[in-house]
Write a structure and sequence with these properties.
mainly alpha, 2 domains, 11 helices, 83% helix, elongated
Length: 304
């Protein structure tokens, strides 16, 4: 999902959630209840007053409440935060360390949004909102990487194959050296070649996952750095260009993280010509990652 499409989806869901939340606020219930009570028991407080006047006043009150809810930065930030946590649930990740990293990233994202919403309106807030959009993309891709790593760590067959493939190659080479029959020697040579392909694939997968682990930790650290920088920013920093530099730092880190996500996806897709294993729109992320791991494993073990 591209940066723009994810941000647009988040904004749309946030708006729908805000409307729902506004209607179900306790203040809304008070307005509706009071309107009904007054209409029923105080229909004519004044000579010109009609019972339906109360309905109009109640409707105006409800509209005003919804409007203030939509324009309340803290109310909106809370709604976006809950939507984000619902979409990227840390509990779906089984690895405890990865789950803590996701939760930490979500906490940074929430605090950065809260900091922006508390800042004064103006040029600085506009710049910081651009930074926030990049942070959302960070958190999204960080979750995707964590889901991939979680599936990789949980795949016992991959770990077993990694431990067994080199000894197996050495064993077959010993057999080849002792064999006299040419037909058998050709078959053994073919088996060794297939084992070497399997080993190369496993090493490639291991290297990519190590890169993903490093990038995940780097991104989490960067989120903490951005949060601390935002605490130091003031209105004069816009003129000095500090806010623009912060935004560029975020953009650079977003691209670096996206490159790693793309690399990991390509490794998993290499064994799936139709890409169904990576259709994360059709499966929960953890399930998609697990399915993708199976595809990569099958590709690597074909020659055994």
């Amino acid at each position: 999902m591209t940066k723009g499409s994810f941000q647009d989806e988040l904004e749309k869901k946030a708006t729908r959630a805000l409307l729902t939340r506004a209607v179900y606020r306790w203040e809304s219930a008070v307005i509706i209840g009071l309107t009904l009570v007054l209409s029923a028991f105080v229909p004519h407080p004044l000579s010109f007053w009609q019972p339906w006047f109360w309905l109009i006043l109640g409707g105006l009150g409800e509209v005003g409440l919804v409007w203030t809810s939509l324009t309340d930065p803290e109310f909106r930030a809370k709604a976006v935060s809950e939507i984000f946590r619902e979409k990227f649930q840390s509990r779906s990740v089984r690895d405890g360390a990865l789950r803590k990293q996701i939760e930490k990233a979500q906490e940074y994202r929430d605090r950065i949004d809260q900091s922006i919403n508390k800042s004064r309106d103006g040029v600085l807030r506009d710049h910081l909102r651009d930074v926030s959009r990049g942070i959302n993309t960070w958190a999204e891709n960080l979750y995707r990487l964590a889901a991939r790593l979680d599936a990789y760590h949980a795949d016992k067959m991959i770990q077993d194959d990694m431990s067994a493939v080199d000894p197996a190659i050495q064993e077959w080479k010993k057999k080849l050296a002792l064999e006299d029959d040419d037909t058998v020697k050709r078959q053994i040579s073919q088996t060794i070649a297939q084992k070497q392909i399997q080993r190369d694939n496993l090493l490639k997968l291991k290297n990519v996952m190590e890169q993903a682990e490093a990038q995940l930790e780097s991104t989490l650290t960067a989120m903490g750095t951005v949060y601390s920088q935002m605490m130091l920013l003031s209105a004069r920093d816009v003129a000095s260009g500090r806010a623009q530099r912060l935004q560029q730092d975020v953009n650079d880190q977003v691209q670096a993280l996206q490159d790693v996500v793309t690399t990991v996806d390509e490794v998993y897709q290499s064994g799936d010509t139709e890409g169904s294993a990576l259709d994360t729109t059709a499966q929960p992320p953890a399930q998609a990652a697990s399915s993708a791991t199976g595809q990569a494993r099958r590709k690597g073990t074909t020659g055994r």
